[in-house]
Amino acid sequence: QVQTVESGGDLVQPGGSLRLSCKASGIIFSAYAMNWYRQAPGKQRELVATIDNGSLTKYADSVKGRFTISRDFNNNSVYLQMHMLKPEDTAVYYCNVKGVTTTGSFDSWGQGTQVTVSS
Fold this sequence. Notes:
Number of strands: 11
Distance between the termini: 40 Å
Low-confidence stretches: none
Number of helices: 0
Structural class: mainly beta
Radius of gyration: 14 Å
Strand content: over 45%
Mean pLDDT: 95
């Protein structure tokens, strides 16, 4: 069973920093790209950042230059380092991995971690 568990969300002031973590299990971690999504109240879920199995990264325009996604293959973990946080970054952040195994396809989401940017 594929699982992703996020942690690290918190209340932070505008301009502050936060680091989110996600631990994956049930997959060969090195084989798959990992994604961070977020969903703000009343808005659709959006893709924030992706890191592939070669550690190439992509970011939403709204977070470029402020957020950094990274992964630790030894610990089956992916991280989202967030700097210069803005109130519009307030959202529930989700870790996601999707792919295909010999037993079928999967699309795994964690429970989410709340990030609130407010003074």
